[in-house]
Amino acid sequence: MIDMIRHRKSIVAAAALAAAATSLVLAAPDAAADVNSVTVTGTSLSLGVDRFGTGCSYTVQVNGSPYEDVYLNDSNGASFGQQQLRLDNSGNASTTWSPTSTGTHVITAWSWRGGPQFAWEQVGSGLDLGSACVVTS
């Protein structure tokens, strides 16, 4: 009889522990994404349909969790001023992006702890004039 009471107490204690753990998991706040956005900006004079051109430099801006390390990749060939960025205390960082081939480019910004964010950009042939980039196709 004593063994049966001990066994029931163990089951009740295990069930209470499982319920407490479940409530902690359900009550925990959602973790913010480590990379929230990636955007490409720059001024260019476009004579074609594309706003970005090969051989010209643009600014890639990344926003996410403060002090997060973020890695950049281009699916179609480009160089970056820095391919690894450390987000500042407001969660922002930027670098330069210079596409080396025409076509569709997918710029990916990702961190080890969070999911990636993407910027899809169409790139034509560019002619860098210093303060502007003429995109001809």
SSE layout and pairings?
Layout: H1 2-27, E1 35-41, E2 45-46, E3 52-53, E4 58-64, E5 69-74, E6 78-80, E7 84-86, E8 92-99, E9 103-110, E10 117-124, E11 126-128, E12 133-135
Parallel strand pairs: 2-12, 3-10
Antiparallel strand pairs: 1-4, 4-8, 5-7, 5-9, 6-8, 9-10, 11-12
Task: Write up this protein.
With 137 residues, this protein is α+β, with helices and mostly antiparallel strands. It is 19% helix and 44% strand. It contains 1 helix and 12 strands. A 5-stranded mixed β-sheet has the order 3-10-9-5-7, with no helix packed on it. Strands 1-4-8-6 form a 4-stranded antiparallel β-sheet, with no helix packed on it. A 3-stranded mixed β-sheet has the order 2-12-11, with no helix packed on it. A hairpin with a 4-residue loop joins strand 11 (126-128) and strand 12. The longest helix is centred in the N-terminal third of the chain and has 26 residues, at 2-27. The chain is elongated, with a radius of gyration of 25 Å. Residues 12-30 have low confidence and may be disordered.
Quick structural gist:
This protein has 137 residues and is of the alpha+beta class.
Structure summary, number of beta strands: 12
Oligomer: single chain
Uncertain segments are 12-30
- Which shape, going by the Cα principal axes? elongated
Major sheet size, sense and barrel closure: 5 strands, mixed
Mean pLDDT, all residues: 81
What is the radius of gyration computed over CA atoms, rounded to a whole number of angstroms?
A: 25 Å
Strand content: 35-45%
Structural class of the helices, strands and pairings?
Answer: alpha+beta
Within the largest sheet, what's the order of strands?
Answer: 3-10-9-5-7
Helical stretch count? 1
Which H/E pattern describes the elements? HEEEEEEEEEEEE
